[in-house]
Every structure is written in structure tokens, then in C-alpha cells.
Amino acid sequence: MTITKNTDPSAPLLSVEDLNVRFPTEDGLVHAVRGVDYTLRSGEVLGIVGESGSGKSVTSLAVMGLLPASARVSGSVKYRGQELLGQGDRAMSRVRGKGVSMIFQDPMTSLDPVYRVGYQIEETLRVHDSKLSSKAAQARAADLLGMVGIPNAAERVRSYPHEFSGGMRQRVVIAIAMANQPDVIIADEPTTALDVTVQAQILEVLQTALSETGAAMVLITHDLGVVAGIADRVLVMYAGRPVEIGGVEDIYYQPRMPYTLGLLGSLPRLDSSTKQRLTPIKGSPPSVVNMPPGCPFAPRCPLHVAECDVAEPDLVEVGGGHTAACIRIDEVRKAGGEAAAVFDEAADDRLLGSEQPADLAAAAGTADAGAPGDPVGERTDPTPQAGTGSLLDATTTPSTTTDGDRR
Ligand SMILES: Nc1ncnc2c1ncn2[C@@H]1O[C@H](COP(=O)(O)OP(=O)(O)OP(=O)(O)O)[C@@H](O)[C@H]1O
Ligand code: SF4
Ligand SMILES: [Mg+2]
């Protein structure tokens, strides 16, 4: 079967539905990806953000059909309406490179050290165009190297990967990814192995790749700062699952899931008018083996209440295609995008009516928090942070519930 002939040009470029990936291991079944849904439209850049182990790479490897044979994959991955899950390697190789191409985190895993870089680009071109003459392939390889900013490209096509710096190797990998004018480029942490100045250059090269090819892109990173300037929409993953999806402005300025707010708080921001300390998220992500019921972020969440442990929250619409998986989105809204209002050590008792999880309480140590359920008015509250007044005003003072939680 020829996959590319069975595609529907009017269907979304890439549509992922209820994708689940499980790996049998000695410790039990690792449920690495738990119900990922997203749609990528023409020309769009979708940023996928999350901590290490949140399932970003496994999601993308599942899309490309590159998971190890032991992986149990269910759900649906459609490229232009054509189902990719369950396709054999031969059928998938028609999609890879031309339909969807991938840039991996470490360029040395993508480049073969024993072949010249020009030859490696030419090979990629010939896989999808067997009639291409070697002269034309050589010329195109040099063009591509020039496009990604390699000086003296006509000469450098004869270099081996070890003759290039890390940043230059990543440029070569991007040239290979754009060689066949793919519809979609999936870039998995393309800048993580590089120093900060080279990171900025590589992001520019990615933008060049998009404008030259007209491709849409899935940009995977653990750094919300990286997607800020380039993504149209952002999907935040936690413990194998999307926990917030929205336009880039919504995610940065009106996050509704405490985890997203926490990620923003651990990021230095040049766009803030006030001096703010960074507020890291305490603790670490849960194991994805035999997960307990309830919200997976609960052990690290200052907004946690008993109800959070009952069932894992679904993504709910918060407006304009923006969705978040949290039962306390209203409280997050009141933070006005200020992470300190939720994650600052001084914030937890005064604002949020949270029933603090044991490990967060332990981390707070001798913090001056009163007993859960103390009315806010009886505390000596710290001075409010700029921009968080709405959290403290009378209309938002939490009410005490029968179980002692303030909501
Ligand atoms: N082949 C495998 N067998 C068992 N578990 C696996 C396998 N591959 C990945 N995992 C597990 O799946 C989970 C998700 O891994 P993944 O590589 O997708 O994380 P990630 O979000 O890309 O992290 P990073 O930012 O470190 O790249 C992790 O818990 C990982 O240990
Ligand atoms: S408030 Fe509850 S549901 Fe929302 S992120 Fe925190 S623990 Fe999860
Ligand atoms: Mg990864």
C-alpha cells in the first residue's frame, strides 16, 4: 500500500488521538504516554513542553513509528487523514523524510561519522527521488548547507561530521530534515545540547527551514522560553499526559494549570515589569508505573485539596481553544500568571486554601503557615506581590468548607 496516495489533502496534516504507549519492564508496565491528543495544521508551530520523562520523545517516536518492538501502542496517528499506527517499516519510510521528518536532540545520533555530510544529504534526497542525478543531488546538498548557514557550503559538503562543531552538526541535521520539503518537521529538543548563543542561532535556522519548506513543526523542549518566540500553540505535558493546551499568549499570560504556572515561575522573564524571584516547583514528577488515582501533579501542587486525589482531572475548555486539566482553574486564574502567588513559600497559606501535600509541607520546613482551615483574615499575611492583588481582595477570600479546605 502506498501511504502517500491514500492521503486526504483536506485533512489536518497530523492528528494524534488518544495515543497511549506502554513498555513492559521488570518493574511493571511503564505507561509513558497516556492519552495524548493534538492536531497540527498547515504552517503551524506546536510547542510540546514538559520536564524530563514526561513522554515528549516517546510521543514523537510513536508518530514516526520508531519505537522499539516491545512498545504497546494504541490510539490513532493520522498524517493527512491516513492512519500511520500499525503500518510496516516500508510503508512508513515513504512518509518519513517527505511527509514527516524528525530532528533529534543529539546530532551525532543522526549523522553517520564515516560519511561526508554532503553525501548524507544526497542520500536523503535520493530516497524520495530515485531519478535525481548525482550532479543535481550534489548541487542541492550544497544549496541546503548554505541555507542553514554553513559558510563555504560548496567546500564543506566534503567534510565529515567530526570536522564540524556541535552547532554546525545540528545545522546539517536540519538541512537533512528539510531536504525533501516535508509537510511536518518534528524537532525533539534541537537546541538542548548546545550553548545559549548557538541555541538562538539554531532557532533562527529552524525558522529558515520552515519558511523555505512551508512545513508545519512540532517543537519539543523542556524550556518554555525556547517556544516563546516560535510557537503558535503550546501543549504542556506532565506524567505522560497533556495538562494544558492553548495559544502561546494564553499559556504565557493566562495559564490555568498550576504546573504550567510553575514552569513559568522557574523561567527568568525579561517581559516582566516587576523584580521577581524565580519560584521553582518543588519535588519531582511521579513514576509512571502503577500510578495512583487522582491528579499526578498533586504531590507538588500548592493548590492541592482532598478532591484532587479522587480522580485525574480531564482537560476542560477555559475559552478560545484553551484547555487545562485542573479542578481549581478559577484559583489559578486569580494568580494572574504570577507564579509567586502560588509557588512562593509565603503564598501557600495566605492565598490558596490548599491542603498542603505532605512533601511540600516538609519542604516548607519552619515556614510560618498556620493550620489548614485557618481563616485568612486571622493571619499576618505577607505583602502582596505586584499583580496578585485579586488573590487577596475580599471577593476572592476563600470560604471554609465542611472538610476544612478553603476553596
Ligand atoms: N524503551 C523504553 N522502555 C521503558 N521505558 C521507557 C522506554 N523509553 C522511554 N521510557 C520511559 O518513558 C517515559 C517517557 O520518556 P521520554 O523519553 O518520552 O521522556 P521525555 O519527556 O522525552 O524526557 P527528556 O526531556 O528527558 O527527553 C520515561 O519514564 C522513560 O523512562
Ligand atoms: S489543584 Fe488539584 S487538580 Fe489542580 S493541579 Fe493541583 S492537585 Fe492537580
Ligand atoms: Mg526526550
Automatic annotation (TrEMBL):
Membrane topology category: Peripheral membrane protein
Gene3D superfamilies associated with the record: P-loop containing nucleotide triphosphate hydrolases
One Gene Ontology term of the molecular function aspect: ATP hydrolysis activity
Location (main, coarse): membrane
Localization: Cell membrane
One GO location term (cellular component): plasma membrane
Pfam families: ABC_tran, oligo_HPY
Keyword match ATP-binding: yes
Region (Disordered): 355-407
Residue span, ABC transporter domain: 14-264
GO BP terms, alphabetized: peptide transport
Keywords: ATP-binding, Cell membrane, Membrane, Nucleotide-binding, Transport
Entry annotated with the keyword Kinase: no
Bias (Low complexity): 357-375, 395-407
InterPro entries xref list: AAA+_ATPase, ABC_Ni/Peptide_Import, ABC_transporter-like_ATP-bd, ABC_transporter-like_CS, Oligopep_ABC_C, P-loop_NTPase
SUPFAM superfamilies: P-loop containing nucleoside triphosphate hydrolases
Family: Belongs to the ABC transporter superfamily.
Protein name: Peptide/nickel transport system ATP-binding protein
